[in-house]
């Protein structure tokens, strides 16, 4: 049985004092929800503080980006080992990074390999644009992203991944995919693509989160689907009450 995994992607929000306040509030509830995996992914500046606060709580910490090289002249970047000093998770290939910062399936692949080499669990984001969706290309786009981003990994490495299916048109729009539609993509497209790469048994064990306008009032609908194993939450992860409500829904499902 796959555990549910709810992670908050804070994106470019919260100063250090604000992040400390939110994590402190979240811990009141999240600490005890040990039937699910849960994590927060604040901006890099708050990671050292967050790592200290979260130590021993069972709540994981993730970064939102890193580079794939070990060290060197890469101004502005964080190395995998630097992220691994503080975090367990790293978000890779978020659509905002693909759109604004030129990430491709090729760079996603380099980052995934670097993350795994440093003991980090990559949360690999995939998802189609509105145009691709309307042109009926969702399955094609998503399976290409899985194959490209996860190329040349062994089944042992595949077993360590988390996937987040985030249709771009659902991100930050309030227009979530229906739970049934999202589940169909997870069950009929993403998991079969994972099975092609890593075998059926490994694919059945990989957590596939849904992301895109997940809120307290629609979360349970996603979590009761066969192949939706949690959520990657943006906007609703910035407030303690909404993120804990989503995590509680995952714990109940
Ligand atoms: P929203 O929950 O704000 O739609 O963002 C989803 C997302 O991009 C999480 O990575």
Please explain how this structure is put together.
This protein is of the alpha/beta class and 253 residues long. It has a single domain, classed as Aldolase class I (TIM Barrel). 46% of the residues lie in helices and 15% in strands. It has twelve helices and eight strands. It has helices spanning 16-30, 47-54, 80-84, 95-101, 105-117, 130-134, 138-149, 155-158, 179-198, 200-205, 216-223, 240-252, and strands at residues 5-9, 37-41, 60-63, 89-92, 121-126, 162-165, 207-211, 230-233. The protein has an eight-stranded parallel beta barrel with strand order 1-2-3-4-5-6-7-8, surrounded by six helices. It is globular, with a radius of gyration of 17 Å. Bound molecules: 1,3-dihydroxyacetonephosphate (13P).
Short description:
The chain contains twelve helices and eight strands. It has helices spanning 16-30, 47-54, 80-84, 95-101, 105-117, 130-134, 138-149, 155-158, 179-198, 200-205, 216-223, 240-252, and strands spanning 5-9, 37-41, 60-63, 89-92, 121-126, 162-165, 207-211, 230-233.
Main traits of this protein?
253 residues; alpha/beta; TIM Barrel; 8-stranded parallel beta barrel; 12 helices; 15% strand; binds 1,3-dihydroxyacetonephosphate
Q: What is the topological layout?
A:
Elements: E1 5-9, H1 16-30, E2 37-41, H2 47-54, E3 60-63, H3 80-84, E4 89-92, H4 95-101, H5 105-117, E5 121-126, H6 130-134, H7 138-149, H8 155-158, E6 162-165, H9 179-198, H10 200-205, E7 207-211, H11 216-223, E8 230-233, H12 240-252
Parallel strand pairs: 1-2, 1-8, 2-3, 3-4, 4-5, 5-6, 6-7, 7-8
Helix pairs in contact: 1-2, 1-12, 5-7, 7-9, 9-11, 11-12
The structure holds 1,3-dihydroxyacetonephosphate (13P).
């Amino acid at each position: 049985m796959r555990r549910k995994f709810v992670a908050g992607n804070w994106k470019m929000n919260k100063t250090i004092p604000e992040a400390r306040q939110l994590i402190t509030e979240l811990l009141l509830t999240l600490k005890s929800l040990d039937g699910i995996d849960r994590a927060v992914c604040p901006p890099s500046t708050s990671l050292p503080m967050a790592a200290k606060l979260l130590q021993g709580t069972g709540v994981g910490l993730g970064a939102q980006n890193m580079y794939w090289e070990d060290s060197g002249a890469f101004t502005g970047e964080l190395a995998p080992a630097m992220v691994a000093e503080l975090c367990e998770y790293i978000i890779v290939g978020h659509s905002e990074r693909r759109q604004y910062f030129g990430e491709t399936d090729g760079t996603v692949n380099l980052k995934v390999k670097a993350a795994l080499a440093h003991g980090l669990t990559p949360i690999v984001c995939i998802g189609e644009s509105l145009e691709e969706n309307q042109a009926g290309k969702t399955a094609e786009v998503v399976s290409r992203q899985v194959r490209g981003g996860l190329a040349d990994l062994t089944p042992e490495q595949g077993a360590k991944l988390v996937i987040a299916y985030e249709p771009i048109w659902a991100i930050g729009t309030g227009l979530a995919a229906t739970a049934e539609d999202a589940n169909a993509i997870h069950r009929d497209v993403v998991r079969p693509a994972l099975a092609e790469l890593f075998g059926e048994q490994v694919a059945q064990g990989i957590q596939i989160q849904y992301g895109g306008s997940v809120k307290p009032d629609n979360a349970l609908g996603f979590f009761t689907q066969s192949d939706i194993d949690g959520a990657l939450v943006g906007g609703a992860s910035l407030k303690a009450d909404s993120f804990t409500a989503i995590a509680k829904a995952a714990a109940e499902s």
